[in-house]
UniProtKB/TrEMBL annotation:
<dbReference type="GO" id="GO:0006974">
    <property type="term" value="P:DNA damage response"/>
</dbReference>
<dbReference type="InterPro" id="IPR007497">
    <property type="entry name" value="SIMPL/DUF541"/>
</dbReference>
<dbReference type="InterPro" id="IPR052022">
    <property type="entry name" value="26kDa_periplasmic_antigen"/>
</dbReference>
<protein>
    <submittedName>
        <fullName>DUF541 domain-containing protein</fullName>
    </submittedName>
</protein>
<dbReference type="Pfam" id="PF04402">
    <property type="entry name" value="SIMPL"/>
</dbReference>
Length: 222
C-alpha cells in the first residue's frame, strides 16, 4: 500500500529511542451492514415433559417452515441452543416441583438486511415466542479494514509531522517501524438492532457500523 516496512510484533531497539518519534495512528470507516444474524425460538413449559417436547418441536417446525417460505435457505437456519430445565417454586422456604421448561433457539443468517423485520414478524406469528438477539455485520469486511488501516497510517504520519515541526527537527521520509496492534478477538464489529413493535411490521434499523484500525509507528528524526 505504502511500501512501509511493517513489523507486527517487534519493537525498535533501545538505541533508536533517543532519535525516534513514536505515535499512535487511528482510522475509522463507517459502512452499512449487509448481513443480519437473528437468534429466536420457542420456549414451552408445563408439568409433562413429553407433552411440552412435542409442543416445542411442532412450534419450531412451523417457525422453520415459515422462514423457508421467505426464501431463507435451510442451511442458514441452525439450532443455536436447546435446553431442558426443571422448574421449581419456592413456598415457605421449601422447593416444590412445578414442571419443565424447554428452550429451543434458532440462529438465522440473512444477507437481505431489509428483510429482517419481516423475518422476525413471520417467525413470531408462526410460533416463536422468544427473540434473543438481532445483530448486524459486514459479510466481507476486508475492504473497509484496509481503508481504516490506510487512514490510521496517514493519521500517524500527520501526528509525527506536527511533533517534529514543534521540536524543530527533520522527520525521516518513511517510518523505521510500523506495528499493527493485535485486533480484539471476536467477530466484525456489530450493532444490536433496535426492535420496535409495529402494527404493520417491526421496525428494525441496522444503522451504520464503524470499522476501526490502529497502528503504532516510529519515525527517525535528525
Amino acid at each position: 500500500m505504502y511500501g512501509y516496512p511493517i513489523n507486527r510484533s517487534a519493537f525498535p531497539t533501545r538505541s533508536n529511542h533517543s532519535s525516534t518519534i513514536e505515535v499512535l495512528g487511528e482510522g475509522n470507516v463507517t459502512a452499512a451492514p449487509d448481513r443480519a444474524v437473528i437468534v429466536l425460538g420457542v420456549v414451552t413449559d408445563g408439568p409433562n415433559l413429553q407433552a411440552i417436547q412435542t409442543e416445542n418441536a411442532k412450534a419450531i417446525s412451523n417457525v422453520i417452515q415459515s422462514l423457508m417460505s421467505l426464501n431463507i435457505p435451510r442451511e442458514k437456519i441452525q439450532t443455536h441452543e436447546y435446553r431442558i430445565e426443571i422448574v421449581h417454586d419456592y413456598v415457605d422456604g421449601k422447593q416444590i416441583f412445578r414442571g419443565y421448561k424447554i428452550t429451543h433457539l434458532l440462529q438465522i443468517t440473512t444477507d437481505h438486511v431489509a428483510q429482517t423485520g419481516n423475518l422476525v414478524d413471520t417467525a413470531v406469528s408462526n410460533g416463536a415466542n422468544n427473540v434473543t438477539s438481532i445483530q448486524f455485520t459486514i459479510a466481507h469486511p476486508e475492504f473497509y479494514e484496509n481503508q481504516a488501516l490506510s487512514i490510521a497510517i496517514q493519521n500517524a504520519r500527520q501526528k509525527a509531522i506536527t511533533i517534529a515541526n514543534t521540536l524543530g527537527v527533520t522527520l525521516g521520509s518513511v517510518p523505521s517501524h510500523v506495528q499493527e496492534p493485535s485486533r480484539t478477538a471476536g467477530p466484525v464489529p456489530y450493532m444490536t438492532a433496535k426492535f420496535a413493535a409495529s402494527a404493520v411490521e417491526s421496525s428494525i434499523e441496522p444503522g451504520q457500523l464503524t470499522i476501526k484500525a490502529a497502528v503504532r509507528v516510529w519515525f527517525l528524526f535528525a
